[in-house]
Amino acid sequence: AVVSTQSTGMFKCCTAFAPISNPCQGLWGVKAFTNYLGEDKSTWNAWDATELAKTFTSGSPVNVLVCQGDTDKFLKAELLTQNFVDVAGQNEAIKLDYRLREGYDHFYPYIATHVEEHFDYIANFIC
């Protein structure tokens, strides 16, 4: 979602499995951003999907598929997917399809089970 919101008009869609959706707010994200981007928090928003979704505009909406397992131990404290869902849902330039999967975390079995849906989703926009 970060790349599609930074490159207005370049992408018709994007997909993500268990994305780190609001790293400016999560402990892991703060640690990573500090190490990679520096102490100046004002530069972090350009790499945070939730922050980008707050101001994203486009002549044609970007379609975003986000899949997340509801038993993912990182969901509430680190991934913060609901923050992105809430913001994207208020932005008419983002057409969000959010799929919260019961009984899944974000490891290989989850991805292997649902990856074909992502291919099909993308195919709808390029075929």
Q: Please give the largest β-sheet.
A: 3 strands, parallel
Helix content: 40-55%
How do the helices and strands follow one another from N- to C-terminus? HEHHEHHEH
Supply the number of helical segments: 6
| Count of beta strands | 3
**How do the strands of the widest beta sheet line up side by side?**
1-2-3
Structural class: alpha/beta
Strand content: 15-25%
User: Mean of the pLDDT scores?
Assistant: 90
Shape: globular
Return Rg in Å: 15 Å
Task: Show unreliable segments.
Answer: none
Distance between the termini: 21 Å
Task: Please summarize what this structure is.
The protein is of the alpha/beta class and 127 residues long. It has helices spanning 2-6, 27-37, 49-55, 75-79, 81-89, 108-126; strands at residues 13-17, 62-69, 94-101. 44% of the residues lie in helices and 17% in strands.
How would you explain this protein's 3D organization?
- The mean pLDDT is 90.
- It contains six helices and three strands, in the order H-E-H-H-E-H-H-E-H.
- It is α/β, with parallel strands linked by helices.
- The protein has helices spanning 2-6, 27-37, 49-55, 75-79, 81-89, 108-126; strands at residues 13-17, 62-69, 94-101.
- The chain has a three-stranded parallel beta sheet with strand order 1-2-3, with helices on both faces.
- It is globular, with a radius of gyration of 15 Å.
- It is 44% helix and 17% strand.
